[in-house]
Design a protein that fits this description.
Helix content of chain A: 40-55%
Order of helices and strands of chain A: EHEHEHHEHEEHEHEEHHEEHH
Oligomer: homodimer
Radius of gyration of chain A: 21 Å
Shape of chain A: globular
Distance between the termini of chain A: 37 Å
Number of strands of chain A: 11
Number of helices of chain A: 11
Structural class of chain A: alpha/beta
Strand content of chain A: 15-25%
């Protein structure tokens, strides 16, 4: 018999909670017999929503957590004060090994702070990177790191590279993933102080396939599988990716709707265009993992729909089955 | 009689030199009677190229500069050693007030290093920002700064904001331009050390319209007119803008060509799409100025065509006519 993997899901986090979150959780339990989901949040609200679905009640449970942490609250303070929030209750389950992983579309700050404060880091991990997948012309790359945990040291970046590499090899199945550091030119002598300090360290790592610097221009071309950077820079990359993508698509739509002739043309192109643009959507791979914790914490987009929640739950299953954390533990023990 | 403005142009720099560069220079002289252009580079090559054009020989001259600085050379060393290069000869003209400005599509590093070493900074300017214009949904924003001059201090960023503001007000005609600092969230307490240090300084500047933080997601929406950041981050923004734009357009073309139906649709949309996408092209405003020098140095794209060269020459004229450098000088004297 296969092992059952338990994923705690924050039913109250995100713009489309609880409806889309619960829909995604139900879908995961319906589709896969090896998954157990625990929804945390206001029990009455969740039960009411669940009423419209048919599912295995043994494998989809509810744990009451009446408090909600909002995006406006200071993350660390909120984690400390709101012990009965959907986020804290779920993270406690991961800490106590009652759950293998946690998925939330709620406050990024609270999820990241809580992951570190409650679940805790793997021994030897200096800083856990939030590592989202970003779409490229030929697939997807891992951006390690991105988030609120800025002003990293070079030793952090080396760990971001190692953990990112393990993730891409085992979760995405990319053999010997190409690791590159974000820089302002391809030459080794270019860069800011942090990059200049990190470059030779990455070069001397025998356990990763370091290919050197990557200019931001090359990221959308999929020029590396793991993109290493300090979280402030990673945040700029991720947000600009989203913002520019949306802006260009809006611009193109305006163009298509601008003349009668183009409107007819647009009708004819619509299906084909939609199909191609699907490739440029990273949500099908799930959310962004916070790597290096004693468990797994996955942050999905604030506007996540059921499909992204479903994919994030599946991502947790692969992560657990592949023993990613043991691999990270072994790698760090061997190298540090 | 109006004043004649002299622009030195590097005839040998860029992927399309000398053909497109010379074409752009001829165009500028043909279109405007108040412009004089001095082309620097190999005289024989330039004269041969000029042979096919009709132009006012008084206002389009050639200064022989047989050496060429390539992209592969270390910038500072190349500037020091190649005294007879098209870049150094032109910069010397700006220094000696024989030219008001310099335009080059050549090595960015050499142009920036040479601008500072030869032309020199305005008294009080701590660091000259390279400030390209980037396209947005409703026009264009100035990215101050972007380039190789990384690891800035907060006082540099304040000057980037001031100079950028003067540029946008006087060159683009945007009254009271909105200035924002690139950050990972909208709240004042967010950011890395540099941003946290710079934020209150910008807030206390009475001479600029500081509107707070801008997330990278909002840049394409034109949420600020002057986008202040450290040059490493600015470089990532600029390069990702270019790379992602190209990648998405390529993806859309693939989509349009994927079925017979979509191919017919594409034919009908083509003109309208092209027209709309023109808005998303910042080269019509010219190149990126290096602000804060005793003169003006403009870096155009390496792949600049005649039209961008032409627009860059016009940009130099407006810059000189508007006495931007006097305005920068007065502003710094008043505030520091």
């Amino acid at each position: 018999m296969q092992n059952m993997i338990t994923v705690a899901v924050d039913a109250m986090g995100g713009d489309n909670a609880p409806g889309e979150i619960i829909k995604g959780a139900v879908l995961a339990v319906q589709e896969r017999k090896d998954i157990k989901v625990v929804l945390t949040g206001d029990e009455d609200i969740i039960r009411k929503e669940l009423g419209s679905y048919d599912y295995d009640k043994e494998r989809l449970q509810v744990v009451h957590a009446p408090e909600i942490i909002t995006n406006c609250e200071a993350p660390v303070l909120a984690i400390r004060r709101k012990k009965n929030s959907s986020i804290v209750v779920a993270l406690q389950m991961v800490k106590n090994k009652e759950a293998d992983a946690f998925v939330s579309a709620g406050s990024t700050g609270a999820v990241l702070a809580g992951g570190q404060l409650i679940v805790g880091r793997i021994n030897g991990v200096e800083r856990p990177p939030l590592a989202p997948l970003i779409p490229t012309m030929n697939g997807v790359s891992l951006l390690s790191a991105c988030g609120a945990n800025v002003d990293a040291r070079s030793s952090h970046l080396v760990q971001f590279a190692r953990m990112g590499s393990i993730y891409m090899e085992n979760i995405l199945g990319i053999k010997n993933p190409r690791v590159a550091i974000v820089n302002i030119g391809a030459e080794e002598e270019k860069g800011n102080l942090l990059v200049k300090e990190t470059f030779p360290l990455l070069k001397s790592c025998n356990d990763i396939n370091f290919i050197g610097s990557i200019e931001a221009r090359e990221i959308p071309n999929g020029a590396a599988d793991v993109i290493v950077c300090e979280a402030f820079v990673g945040n700029v990359i991720l947000k600009l990716y989203e913002g520019l993508g949306t802006a260009l698509v809006k611009k193109i739509k305006t163009g298509l709707m601008s003349t009668t002739k183009s409107k007819i043309g647009a009708l004819l192109c619509k299906t084909a265009l939609k199909e191609t643009m699907k490739d440029f959507d990273a949500t099908k791979y799930g959310g962004a993992p916070l790597l290096g914790l004693n468990g797994l914490v996955v942050k999905t987009h604030g506007n996540a729909k059921s499909n992204e929640v479903y994919n994030s739950i599946l991502q947790c299953v692969t992560f657990t089955e592949q023993n990613i954390n043991d691999k990270i533990r072994n790698n760090l023990n061997k190298n540090e």
